[in-house]
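Milestone M4 deliverable, item 7.
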Amino acid sequence: MDILNSRIKRIILGHLSKTNNYPELAYRTVLSILETNGIRDGVDIDLDIAHRDRVGKYYSV
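Output delivered:
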């Protein structure tokens, strides 16, 4: 996981297709990769989805 480092606290999955890359599949796929590399959602990093059809959480950058 060369792209991740200790400064990254949140990953937001976006631009998810309705038919080819639906949110649950993307979330489970990324979560699996993170867990394989010893990174825990909710502990080491916050993994979230930017849904294409509804308002999501508000984040300040």
